[in-house]
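Key idea: predict the complex, not the pieces.
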Amino acid sequence: MIPIEYWLILSSLLLAIGVYGVMTRKNAIVVLMSIEIMLNAANINLVAFSSYYSSLHPNLGTDATGQAFALFSIAIAAAEVAVGLAILLSVYRRYQTIDVDKINILRW
Amino acid sequence: MDVLQYAWLIPVFPFIAFILIALIPKRTLGWEDGWGYAIAGAGGALVLSSLVIWEVLNGHTLTEDAPRTTWLIIGDYEVTFGIWIDQLAALMLLIVSIVGTLVVVYSGGYMHAEGETRRRYYAEIMLFISVMYGLVIADNYLQMFIFWELVGLCSYLLIGFWYQKPSAASAAKRAFIVTRVGDIMFMAGIILLFKYVGNLDFAVLFDINSGTPGAPTVPSDILILSTALIFGGAIGKSAQFPLHEWLPDAMEGPTTVSALIHAATMVKAGVYLTARTYPLLVQTPESLLFVAVIGGVTALIAASCALAANDIKRVLAYSTISQLGYMILGLGAGGYLVYHLQDPNGYTAATFHMMNHAFFKALLFLCAGSVIHAVGTNDMRLMGGLRKHMKITSTTMLIGALAIAGVPPLSGFWSKDEVLAAVYHAGDLDPIFLLLWVLGIVTAFMTAFYMFRMWFMTFAGEARSTYHAHESPKIMTIPLIILAGLAITSGFALLAGDGFKAFMELPIEEYVIPGHESTFDIAVEIFTDPLTYVSLVLAVVGILLAYRMYYVPGFDRSIFARGAAGTMQRALENRLYISKFYDDFAYKVWYGFSIVCDAFDRRVIDGAVNGFSYLGANTGGVIRKAQSGNVQRYASLIIVGIVILLALLLFVVPWGGW
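Result:
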């Protein structure tokens, strides 16, 4: 059994990578991909804590709540990507660019 | 049927005429643009007034038990409208109804050339007469004050009748604003009385400090203050010094309006108020002294201003102020006599003079209107020789001038003599009345002089400019003849029947010992009193002086251009600089104060408001830079915020022990 700390370090690294990507990349598709990475970091946490909880209470049997949540999360992420890509597509049609630095008209 | 119960209908007649003239469409109005309706309204009021006066002459009055109607209820106090018909109100009804009706009749000729604007004129005249009746029959101070203000409004409208002329518009404003100073004092006096008594009905107020059970008591200093303040209203309305300057300016209105204002309505309201307040005034000798001094000073100042005026209407305006001064002086001195000796002579003399003055002053104004109608100017220097062309006007005006100058047996002689006798008599109580008597006697001399100066300049000698004078139409001369008849005969009211004195002392009978003189005794007293001959001689000297200076050719008037006489002449022509003082006060002191206020408003008040708005705008200008529209910066800020929050939760909160 892999200790919980390893999973948490992995998910923290993935989250950090995702945050870095959201903050720095100019291409909106890469930003969207970075958001997916951050979501997956959260999913790993959910699964890891689910398995950890079961190992702490062996008399309760296997608890799959966290894993079920991870599945919901993946499904929602798929929908979110579809919406996000559709927005980016119409942004591209309008401005001929998907550079997030250039799409800044919603301001003072 | 008791006519007095229906006295409240008197103001209703002219009011209905006012409504009809104002509302009936122009095409169907007809009747000389409302003249007919005005005659009907004034005539209806005249008929009903006559019936009421007849009842009062027969000894019936309707005062404390008159019908009332509740208008408002404020807390425990019911504001009522009612009627109060005593001998004083009847006297005023007589004046207003006769003079008002004759002025309306006369207007048919005088205003004939005005065309369609007459509709406005007749409507306003009707309202004016109506509210004056309302004032006369009021039975409490609040009702009186409401009509008092309406009288002021109507005078504003009518003085500014030719509002296209800037001078008329500003004269109307001046009349309105100057009288408003007095009105505010009047209101303050009423409020003061209301604070202490809780009621404004004459029936309650006239019982103040009477000692009868249930009568309200008021501290004497408060009573002095409130009567002085109420008299302040009369100072404004009756154009007493120092608020008299609006009246000569008010000559900008049509002459008929001047006649109405001077003889029957506006300025008489002030004297009427003072006479009406008598039951309170006679308890406060301090206020009475104030009243008398104001009256005496006004009489002299106004008479001296009239000496040098060249505008025929302005001479008459100053003479009105001067005569009003007589009435006020008579009321002040008469109150002193009542206070000390229970002697009603001053009161009866002043009200007698009020009646006689109404007739001869209306006559003089309507004559002046007739002259202006014929010549087309107000300036007496451009007239002269009109006697040949205008026989009726010149004769009736001569009667008016003789009456006001105090030549027996015309009306002015009797009442002026009575007023001066009362003032002289009050001199036994306080020597200041002897001084006021001297002012009065000098005024009598001046009055005779300037009235005949006016008459000689207008009617005698040769024409000084080219004009085609003609006698006025009958519709104008008949009122003149009627008024001339009244100016000759109204003085005999003193001797008719039981005499005017016995009649007029009834409103204040609680405060006086009724005189039991027969009218024969009164006549004997007048003709054996050396003071009568003093004033008579002075009047004759004044007339002769005017004759010498303005009728006999060859009088060298250049002495009035040099030296002391010149200074005097210039001061009088400039209305003793009183008007100039007010103008300077307004332009310099008040305007300076206004500049300071304006600067305070712009700099301090506006500065504070603008400062706050700048603060908000500039702060916003700085803070809005955060809204860059760059989503990655927002994301970075969110993350920084989360990190800070986490750091706080993980380290600072446990360390602080929360």
